[in-house]
Amino acid sequence: MDELQPLMVQRLRKIDELKKEGANLFPNDFRVEKTCEDLVNRFGQATPDELKMVKESFSLAGRIMAMRDFGKAAFIHIQDRRGKIQVYVRSDRVGKKSFGLFKKMDIGDFMGITGTLFRTKTDELTLYAESIRLLTKSMRPLPEKWHGLRDVETRYRQRYLDLLVNPKVKEIFTKRTRIIQLIRQFLDARDFLEVETPMMQPIPGGATARPFKTHHNALDLDLYLRVAPELYLKRLVIGGFERVYEVNRNFRNEGISTQHNPEFTMLELYQSYATFEDLMTFTEEMVCFIAQNVLGGLALEYQGGKIDLSPPWKRLTVKEAILQWGRIDPKTLQDYDKALEYAQGLGIPLEKGIPHGKIITELLGEIVEPHLIQPTFVTHYPTDVSPLSRRNQDHPDLVDRFELYIAGKEVANGFSELNDPVDQRERFIKQLEQSNVGEMEGHRLDEDFLHALECGMPPTAGEGIGIDRLVMLLTDSPSIREVILFPLLRPQKE
Question: Do residue 92 and residue 184 come from a single domain?
């Protein structure tokens, strides 16, 4: 802030001068008729002679992003929500008083302009101002240069400036919105119903994660920000909504990394009379539909690597994946002590007593995930780490579940849902027992959900897709913070 102080002092002086002259620094009566994009789309290819034939005047507004002063005339660039356009301001055209006001404007101010179009000698489409208005006087100067990764935390803290001066950042968030629109379009066309479920829950369930805790004073009730909407969406399936989805926030009181933010966006969907295999095909179709509309094709580059989304995507089981990349004896995987010893030898911090399936999935993350660059479904996870999934009919120690990996990242998790209330109760109880031996993030016993399940849930498959990670992939962003407008950061030291 110290280095900006002299510039701010200059601007504050200008503000005092303008106030003394009776200028309104924050009017709200200017009407915008066009955007920069409207003019470029309509007249971007017009010749100078064709523009001379256009007698129409156009009114637009935006922030001054650049200025070249030539005394009694100036060229500026105005930026609005749809782009930029050059504006030419001359004293003898806008009038002496207005031009005097203009001379006290700065880069970063908002300005309203009405004028006609022409082309400069350098062939740039330009709005020739007939009248101008100051719409907002900025006190702080915009950064002249943005230093990329050296100022990466400042970019996240001051995202408003990041969006202003980095067009690529604005493009990422425009694409993010488009991706979510396409998700809804895809699901709505297939008769899915979008719903909203509680963000504050008396029992956090639906995922193995540490919740945030809060308190409702009037009810004197402890509540938890949800870690997942799963158990509420299943209640809706039981209630007759056979195809249902939600796009909303989840909250997990865990670490922060390039792939994790405590507050993140998920798509969660459920389809009755479908299996986890149906959802794998469904996911291929949806992601390809989104990529086609956002990227124009199924080939993309992510952090220097080529990825091909063309279906069908590779499918392999957890066991097959570990054996393929781990060079491990299958008998070692099957033996609890040997598997634990092998995992510890790789530096994975696991203690004796954790579930066997937890060891297997930790090995999967350590050995396999970095190799899963092309789209790959990993299937058939251990039952003891999948408490809400349906057991595999032929191998009851496994479940009918998949996780989708692209570019070495888990993007989706889906499974055939467990709809046997007796089995579900037993698994919940087992989770509670594990929480007493160090698994602090185990599920809680949700009697209301079990009551609902006892009323009968049809055969159903469900899936969660991490929207932030999908956006990372489709915008070639290395960190989840690049695709969340306001990621959580440590407070700045004063």
Answer: no
Whole-Å CA distances, 267 to 250, 289, 307: 10, 16, 23
Compute the distance between CA of residue 28 and CA of residue 327 in angstroms, rounded to an integer.
69
The pLDDT tens digits of the residues spanning 283-295 come to: 999 999 999 999 9
Of 136, 171, 190, the last residue of a domain is: 136
Among the candidates 91, 121, 136, a domain finishes at 136
Count of CB atoms situated within 10 Å of the CB of 247: 17
Six-digit token string for 285: 């179709």
The domain that holds 280 is classified in CATH as: 3.30.930.10
Amino acid identity, residue 65? M
Span 214-273, pLDDT tens digits: 999 999 999 999 999 999 999 999 999 999 999 999 999 998 888 899 999 999 999 999
Bridge partners of 410? 405
Give 78-128 pLDDT, tens digit per residue.
Answer: 999 999 999 999 999 999 999 999 999 999 999 999 999 999 999 999 999
Containing structural domain, residue 30: 2-136
Pair of tokens at residue 151: 């100022």
Q: Does residue 375 have a cis peptide bond before it, meaning omega lies within 30 degrees of 0?
A: no
Instruction: Report d(CA 252, CA 261) in Å as an integer.
Output: 8
3-class state of residue 19 by DSSP: helix
Is the pTM here over 0.85, yes or no? yes
The set of long-range contacts for 218-223, using a CB threshold of 8 Å and a minimum separation of 24, is: none
Both tokens assigned to 179: 């991706």
Q: For residues 1 and 367, give the distance between their C-alpha atoms in angstroms, rounded to a whole number.
A: 47
366 DSSP assignment: I
CA distances from 237 to 243, 417, 456 (A): 7, 11, 10
Are 220 and 323 within 8 A, CB to CB?
no
Structure tokens at 180: 């979510």
